[in-house]
Structure formats: C-alpha cells, structure tokens
Specification:
With 201 residues, the protein is mainly beta. The chain has helices at 48-54, 133-138, and strands spanning 3-9, 22-28, 40-45, 72-81, 97-106, 112-118, 120-123, 129-130, 142-146, 154-163, 169-179, 189-200. Helix content is 6%, strand content 45%. The chain has one domain (3-200). A hairpin with a 5-residue loop joins strand 7 and strand 8. A 4-stranded antiparallel beta sheet has the order 6-5-11-12, with no helix packed on it. A 3-stranded antiparallel beta sheet has the order 3-4-10, with no helix packed on it. The longest helix has 7 residues, at 48-54.
Length: 201
C-alpha cells in the first residue's frame, strides 16, 4: 500500500533547528472520493519563512506549536495525456486552446493559482501574429510556437504553492477547452472538460 509521509513538528525549538525538532509519520495514503484527485507531493521545502515561524520571529505565522504538520512549499505532479484522440490536442487553429488550471485555496488565506496553456500559434509572412481562425489558412506562414499534446503523449506538469502549516487547503485541477464555433472569430467559447478537487492538510 502507498504510504502517506508527513513531517510533524515534534518540539518547538529554543535555538537553531535540529533534526530532533521534527518527526516523520507514516500512514496509508488517503483514498479519492467522487470528483477528487490525489496529488503526489514530490518535494517540500522548509524556507526562511517557515524557520522564522518555528523560532517565533514571524508574527504572521502565529505562535509556533508542536504536534502539527510542518508547512512549506510543496511540489506536486499532474499527469496530462493524449491517449485516444489520434491527432494533436488541441487541433491547430489559433483559436483552440487547452488550459490546465490548478488552484490551491487555503481556508485562512488568498487563493493561489497556476495554469498551463496548450496551443499552436502562427504568424504571417511579416511576422505578425495570426489570431483569427479563418486567417490561419489564408495568411499563416509559419508556426511560432507549438506545445500541443502529440498522439499518445503523456506529460508531467508541476505546480508549487506555499501553504502555511496545518492549513486545510482545497486543491482543484480544471481542464478548459477554448474554441471558436463555426470558425467565427468574434466569440471564443469555453467548455469545461474535467474538474477534480481534493481537501488536503
């Protein structure tokens, strides 16, 4: 069974931080419920802000206390795949984009947000960006960028969010698809492909 590893504050330090001030606890990994996603934390840092909070010199962190999970900046992984489309995702129109949005919403602070945009961008023969879908076929002369998912590709994206120690946080991953219906450039539409969320602490 996959383990859930947590770093707890074993003792409130009275001086420089020591290994004995921390305790590593193991428990079964939590199971995902309907509409939830389980993020795997690959790394977590204890930076200057966390050290100051433990030593009582950061008023914004509150009074340090033992027996709680040590907060820090976590590195989580989200895997995106193009498993069955048989073509690039999204297709090559400049108006079509896939946006992966990941938010962390601590109950005691502001919402944190990062995103990844998958698309192809074009330029005309003068190097001017081509933004409208019909013009992509008439004026598009060169591809200026292309980070779309190729057929069968799996891509790992990482997101970093600084979350205070012991703070319950709602983590949500959403896939948006942007397109222009009937190739009309005046109104780009957005469709939600997938939304997954999990409450973590």
């Amino acid at each position: 069974m996959t383990e859930n590893l947590q770093v707890f504050i074993a003792n409130v330090p009275s001086g420089p931080l020591q290994v004995s001030d921390f305790e590593l606890r193991r428990s079964p990994a939590p199971a995902c419920g309907p509409g939830e996603v389980l993020c795997r934390t690959l790394a977590i840092t204890i930076g200057a802000g966390q050290r100051a909070g433990l030593q009582g010199s950061a008023s914004y962190a509150g009074a340090p206390r033992s027996g709680v999970v040590m907060g820090g900046t976590g590195l989580a992984r989200v895997e995106v795949s193009n498993a069955a489309a048989g073509h690039y995702v999204p297709t090559g129109s400049p108006m079509r984009q896939l946006v992966l949005e990941v938010t962390a919403d601590p109950y005691s602070g502001r919402q944190l947000r990062e995103e990844r945009v998958y698309r192809r961008t074009l330029a005309d023969s003068q190097g001017k960006p081509v933004e409208r879908e019909p013009q992509a076929f008439l004026r598009g002369a060169k591809v200026t960028s292309d980070n779309r998912l190729t057929p069968g590709e799996k891509r790992i994206e990482t997101f970093r969010f600084p979350v205070p120690a012991g703070t319950q946080t709602q983590v949500q991953a959403t896939f948006w698809y942007y397109y222009s219906p009937l190739a009309q450039t005046e109104s780009q539409q957005r469709v939600t492909f997938l939304t997954l969320r999990r409450l973590v602490k």
